[in-house]
Amino acid sequence: MSSRWIAYLYLLLAMLGAGSTVVVSKLVSASLPPFTATAIRFGMALPLFLLLMGWRRAEWPRLCRHDWIMLILQAGAGSVGYTVLLLAGVRLSTAASASVMMGTLPAVSSLLAWLLFRESMHWRQGLALLLCSVGAVMVSLRSGAALSFGSAGELAGNGLILLAVACEALFILLNRRLHQPLPPLALSCYLCALGLLLALPAAALEWRGNWQVSAAALLGLAYYAAVPTVLGFVLWYAGAARVAASEAALFTAVLPVSALVFAAALLQEEIRRAQLAGMACVLAALLLQFLPAMRRSVPPAATGAGQAE
Predict the structure, then answer these.
(1) E-assigned strand segments in the chain
(2) If you count Cβ atoms within 10 Å of the first and of the last residue's Cβ in the chain, which end, N or C, has fewer?
(3) Are 141 and 308 in contact (CB under 8 A)?
(4) How far is residue 207's CA from residue 98's CA, in Å, rounded to a whole number?
(5) Measured between alpha carbons, how far is 125 from 131 in angstroms, rounded to an integer?
(6) Domain ranges of the chain
(7) EamA domain location, by residue (predicted)?
(8) Is the pLDDT of residue 77 over 80?
(9) Which residues are bridge partners to 148 per DSSP?
């Protein structure tokens, strides 16, 4: 098997793991409050990252004050904010709706880059944002004699999930503001440790002595820590190292689809027509944004140019 196809397999597995987090979040949120679940997740993942650092004999980069501030903001937004909001959102809404919302990440990233950092927005990004907005509205629609919005709780849940996506987009944008690019393993370890420190105080306020935590929730958190968090990191960067960054980004389209399939298969959630229509809008937006990268990633048949070494 060529290096390119191995990379595709790694990236596909990483995104399948990421898609499963929506289902896991639904199971965990039924037993644990969001900050407590977030703290437990990072508490389980951090020793695994430290073992990887030791196994790889990786060095700990020395950071300036600016980069420490950026890392704290990243951990607050992408590590804690994303996980807490996703857990709170899926508790009120459905995993199927959350699956569609997850696919809006590239469009939301473009919007925040334009609003916060005055980065230019291409017409494709603007149209993709419009399609994602339509998709996000569609997941809240109920079918019947006339289309209507779902319950107030479901609408609130969808709003929290969209805020979680915005936190993840902010995480991506803040990473570009680091003065010193960090090795992926060290960066993940720093963010995991900072996420744990930021989540612990709020988790302490949530503490109740009479909690009855289900075995499914604890197993879900262990899975969340080991597979999407740690193994997902290893698979994603192993695959991304073998292909161009624009080509690796194409595989983010797998995330919302896999999450929707997991929601239907494991949670037996009914997939409404409006949710399928929303998914179609989101996938069209992803295709629109990544179309130039798809064209660049196809190697000429005669020379085989473009294959990563």
Answers:
(1) 141-142, 148-149
(2) C
(3) no
(4) 27
(5) 10
(6) 3-205+213-297
(7) 6-140, 157-288
(8) yes
(9) 142
